[in-house]
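SEQUENCE AND FOLD
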Amino acid sequence: MRYRSGDSDQRHEGRRRPPAAAEGPGVPPQAGRATDTSGDACAIRLTESLEDAVLALDAQPAGFEDAARKADHVEELRRILGILLDVLADWEMLADREARGP
């Protein structure tokens, strides 16, 4: 089902973070922290790229309902989501391990 652009604005409201300066005092920025490593930069790039891709897809004038090979696209998305779920599980495991300490 294609979401109308009004629905899109409502669905994604609050998901994009404003620049750090716009967040206000006392709110730590999500990107560009002094302690960030190249791993942080890669993680930020991945999540921002995924979000940008989803938002760009939703903004297209022709939606999925116009696709000629719907089943192929569903299967490809399912494959990619499987990979993303594996990445998420790995990240959660590492975050939990770090939170518990040595």
